[in-house]
Specification:
Layout (H helix, E strand, L loop, with lengths): L20 E5 L10 E4 L4 E8 L7 E8 L2 E6 L6 E7 L7 H17 L5 E7 L9 H4 L13 H12 L2 E3 L14 E2 L6 E2 L2 E6 L12 E3 L10 E3 L27 H15 L9 H19 L13 H13 L6 H38 L3 H12 L9 E2 L5 E2 L2 H15 L26 H9 L14 H5 L2 H18 L4 H4 E8 L10 E6 L2 H21 L13 H17 L5 E5 L10 H10 L4 H12 L2 E6 L2 E2 L3 E2 L11 H16 L8 E2 L2 E2 L2 E4 L2 E6 L2 H17 L10 E4 L10 E2 L2 E2 L1 E2 L2 E4 L2 E4 L4 H17 L1 H5 L5 H16 L10 H19 L9 H12 L5 H18 L3 H7 L15 H9 L3 H8 L2 H12 L13
Helix pairs in contact: 3-20, 4-5, 4-12, 5-12, 6-7, 7-8, 7-22, 8-22, 10-14, 14-18, 15-26, 16-17, 16-18, 18-19, 20-22, 20-23, 22-23, 23-24, 25-29
């Protein structure tokens, strides 16, 4: 119960909640008891417990920490229960008070027995909203507020660090069962009370019964919140993976690699003169590759840790044998010595592996390959994938038998990839392409395609990893060239090159519902060689017709560029008092709804190569899929709609298809959003589309035209997920709808992973800081590992944790306050890896001194942000494209009177100590600008980040 005002004569009043332990906030009491803590003289704050008499004997202890924190431990089975009651400071308090509160709370948690069921509940004075679900679905649910405030993000940071979930936000409850606090006037309601439960017990929460009970008579402006928890565990033996996995690591040994190439070359040599059909050639290719891999490389030995080498596994086998002789003096001595060797070797290779991963991440950032960098980060920090051994059918019935589950997955995926398209047949009436491109495939094209194959990718139905093809040698390349030319000439694709294996990964929500899973297709790596050859021929033709507004899957373009374009364009429109309206479009299952016939017609309309179109069409005509389950493959089914998942061609094909839709939708729309004399009707990154307009009337026309055009091509706009946003302070006057369903108007929107709103970069930086804290928490065991040096920990922090914060930092506009927040975040991270608590009363300067003592001079986080932003500015000035137009262009209209909001370019002028014209002139000189960036970001003594005392 929240805010219960209890006096002595009231403390024994019966409160009928049906709960064994009830929490009490803001306890006003005149006599001290063991179940209550508070400030006696001021009659403020105070927390306590009301405990059912039947479980009083189960109380193991009650710890009163402060007037805001109290904990109780109860004896229970199978584990004891620790309940912590909190009353967080309100928004009137400074950040220092908030941090002190969370630091005290963290100290309590550290002392809790690891086996205990930990529950933290109380009035957090924080709002967590549905807008946090995209990034925080592991820690909260949809039954929450409409938006998240700053204290809400701090609560989510805390929850993620301790791997806990906000139990009363799970499920779908009506609003009266969500609100926990009501304003005295009865007009305003919020959810600010939460019960946190460890994620390992999340499946034990009875979600329908874990909610607010507004009918409980407790005489307070807070409502009663009850947690219903029933522990249930069942150990299930996982099914064995029936697919053979080769020991690819052996190919790193030059002698073994040479043996593999010689062996495989000898087997392919007799086949080079044969003339066979594509199916026979592919069968021979698959057999030779797998047989040779099995002979030379052998079977991969499972490793629990990725850094474990085969040499260490052999030492472990020897140690296991020596363990049998430990009962003798000599055996015990040999076992101890070998055990010490194993431990030292494990420590060494672990550090080497971590360092190599960090180096690869840093190298990716240096080469501007952010996609690969963040992919490695996600692989290293993502939580273990949730798995369910049963699934629900269409009607919600639980299926437990393996055959039933396999059939259900086949049914679901078959419906997903065989959607009935109801497009307009007239869009298929296009003139045939006159572009003849039937020249044969060259060996150099095959070699280039093989070189571009990525390592570490799961193989398709043929079970041939890409590493085998990359190390196949000359004869294999010649054979593969002949096979690809045969496909090019005849249009006959081998069956294993058209088949995809589908694996399922849980996204969020109910783990038993198929719709809450992401499907990923595995295709043959050998087929990818042919597909990359086709892609290299298709890309130049596609680049000629795809608009500059589309940045998705295009060389030299990135998500950061589109975020920059959107931020700076919105910034200039607001400062010149011009209205801009955004429609963030979401197509329902966009990539899975591409109409094949309309795609071929579109390619003919754009006069692309006839041979390219026909070869791709034949591939799609033979495409089939099956779901790969643990232990087997389900039934095969045809795929008649959508671009193929995992196929190198799919992004480009989708861009071509979407270009036709956008061209038709905006055919008669000139657009009024312009800068520097150039009209910008939309910004796109694949299917992430922001359509812009200068007025409500224009936006309504655009919505109607886009809905009509997309429907003609079999696509459907999701009215639930598409949002409208404007910088007009009066908002939207006329409701805008898609097929009768109103589109929601929002104050902020997450576009390409970055929060866009009218208030600048503050909300995005706060969100990034919270995500960084979550990433920091996922590596808690690493920070506590004394066998890992501080140097390696700092590299991990830089490459894996802080890289999360730095995403799209080039697009931020930094005020003095935001710069201080960035410094505070870095200091919080340093304290974590050094194991320093705020209760140790160690100054920030001392923390920096310790870091420098171990690492020498280092580039702090704020300096990194500055450097990357200045480098981005120089790159944009030297480039030719949309970003440069938006950066240098002007918008009509005048600026309002008074102090102006800081602009993106103001940071450039401030840090370089130059006028904007001077900075632009210098940026054209690459070497001169590089020197200027160094001078602008060099750190002064006692001035981290080059930030002078404010």
């Amino acid at each position: 119960m929240g805010s219960a005002r209890l006096h002595d004569e009231e403390q024994h009043t019966g409160i009928h909640t049906g709960s064994d332990v009830a929490r009490v906030n803001k306890v006003r009491a005149f006599r001290r008891t063991s179940g209550r803590s508070g400030e006696q003289d001021k009659h403020i704050n105070g927390v306590g417990f009301l405990v059912n008499k039947t479980i009083q004997k189960a109380i193991l202890g009650c710890l009163q920490v402060s007037s805001r924190l109290i904990s109780i431990r109860l004896r229970a089975k199978p584990f004891n229960i620790t309940v912590v009651q909190v009353y967080a400071p309100t928004s009137d308090y400074d950040e220092e008070v908030i941090e002190e509160f969370y630091n005290q709370l963290q100290l309590i948690i550290v002392k809790v027995n690891k086996k205990d069921i930990l529950i933290i509940q109380g009035d957090w004075n924080a709002k967590v909203g549905v807008d946090a679900l995209n990034d925080w679905s592991e820690y909260c649910g949809p039954s929450s507020n409409s938006s998240t405030n700053e204290r809400g993000f701090r609560l989510l940071e805390f929850a993620s660090y301790n791997n806990m979930t906000l139990a009363n936000t799970l499920g779908t409850h009506k609003e009266s069962r969500r609100w926990t606090w009501h304003a005295p006037n009865g007009l305003h309601h919020n959810q600010i009370d939460y019960i946190l439960v460890q994620n390992r017990f999340r499946s034990s929460i009875n979600i329908p019964k874990t909610r607010t009970f507004p009918g409980a008579d407790i005489g307070s402006d807070h409502d009663l919140v009850i947690l219903n928890l029933k522990i249930r565990w069942k150990k299930i033996k996982p099914a064995k993976n029936m697919r053979l996995k080769f020991n690819i690591e052996k190919l790193k040994d030059p002698s073994i690699r040479e043996t593999f190439q010689v062996t495989i070359g000898g087997k392919f040599a007799p086949l080079l003169a044969l003339e066979e059909d594509t199916e026979t050639m592919t069968t021979r290719f698959n057999a030779i590759m797998t047989e040779t891999a099995n002979e030379v490389l052998g079977k991969h030995r499972h490793k629990n840790k990725p850094w474990v080498t085969d040499d260490i596994l052999e030492l472990c086998d020897l140690r296991r044998e020596l363990k049998k002789t430990k009962n003798t003096e000599r055996g015990a001595r040999e076992y101890r010595e070998l055990n010490k060797t194993v431990r030292n070797e494990m420590r060494r290779v672990k550090e080497e592996w971590i360092e190599s991963q960090c180096s690869e991440i840093e190298d990716c950032f240096n080469r501007n390959n952010t996609k690969r960098a963040y992919q490695i980060v996600n692989d290293l920090t993502k939580p273990r994938q949730q798995k369910s051994n049963n699934i629900q059918d269409k009607h919600g019935n639980c299926l437990t038998e393996k055959d039933e589950i396999s059939k259900r997955w086949t049914e679901y995926c078959s419906e997903l990839y065989n959607h009935q398209i109801n497009g307009d047949p007239t869009v298929l009436n296009c003139p045939q392409s006159t572009n003849l491109d039937d020249f044969p495939i060259l060996r150099e094209e095959i070699e280039l395609a093989i070189k571009s194959l990525k390592n570490g990718k799961t193989p398709g139905i043929d079970n041939i990893p890409g590493e085998l093809i990359q190390n196949g040698g000359e004869n294999m390349t010649i054979f593969l060239t002949r096979l690809c030319n045969r496909i090019w000439e005849t249009g006959e694709w081998p069956s294993t090159w058209t088949q995809s294996l589908i694996i399922t990964l849980h996204k969020k929500g109910n783990i038993q519902q198929c719709s809450n899973y992401r499907t990923i297709s595995l295709i043959s790596h050998a087929s990818k060689v042919m597909l990359k050859v086709i892609l290299n021929r298709l890309t130049p033709q596609a680049e000629e017709i795809i608009a500059a507004e589309q940045a998705g899957f295009r060389k030299g373009r990135s998500t950061t560029e589109q975020i920059f374009n959107l931020r700076v364009l919105g910034e200039k429109y607001s400062q010149h008092q011009q209205d801009i309206y955004h429609l963030f479009v979401d197509f329902k299952k966009a990539f899975d709804r591409v109409w094949h016939d309309a795609l071929w017609a579109t390619m003919h309309k754009y006069n692309m190569g006839q041979k390219l179109i026909e070869t791709i069409r034949q591939l799609y005509a033979r495409a089939g899929s099956a779901v790969l389950m643990q232990g087997g493959v389900g039934d095969w089914f045809r795929t008649t709609v959508g671009v193929r998942q995992g196929c190198p061609l799919s992004p480009t094909l989708f861009n071509i298809f979407l270009e036709r839709i956008m061209t038709d939708a905006l055919e008669d729309h000139m657009g009024t959003v312009s800068i520097g004399g150039q009209t910008i009707p939309n910004l796109r990154f694949a299917d992430d589309i922001d359509v812009m307009a200068g007025s409500e009337e224009e936006l309504m026309r655009v919505v109607h035209n886009l809905d009509t055009a997309s429907t003609n091509y079999g696509m459907e706009i999701s009215a639930e997920k598409s949002k409208i946003m404007t910088n007009n302070t009066e908002g939207i006057h006329t409701p805008i709808a898609v097929r009768g369903q109103l589109l929601e108007t929002v104050q902020h929107f997450k576009y390409l992973g970055s929060i866009i709103n009218e208030e600048g970069s503050k909300m995005e930086i706060l969100s990034r800081a919270a995500q960084t804290t979550a990433a920091l928490a996922k590596l808690k065991t690493v920070w506590q590992d004394k066998n890992i040096s501080l140097k390696i920990k700092q590299k991990l922090l830089r490459a894996i944790v802080l890289s999360v914060f730095l995403y799209a930092c080039e697009t931020w506009t930094l005020t003095a306050e935001l710069q201080r927040r960035i410094q505070a975040l870095e200091m919080r991270c340093f304290r974590r890896i050094l194991g320093i608590s705020y209760r140790d009363h160690i100054t920030n300067e001392e923390v920096r001194r310790r870091i420098r003592q171990h690492l020498g001079q280092y580039e702090d986080l704020l300096t990194t942000v500055k450097r990357r932003k200045l480098q981005s500015y120089g790159h944009t000035i030297r480039s030719v494209g949309l970003a440069k137009t938006i950066l240098q262009g002007t918008v009509r209209g005048g600026r309002r009177r008074g102090r102006q909001r800081k602009r993106w370019t103001d940071n450039i002028k401030e840090w370089t100590e130059r006028s904007l014209a001077g900075a632009q002139a210098l940026a054209h000189d690459r070497e001169g600008w590089r020197d200027n960036v160094y001078r602008s970001t060099v750190q002064r003594p006692h001035d981290p980040g080059g930030l002078r005392e404010q």
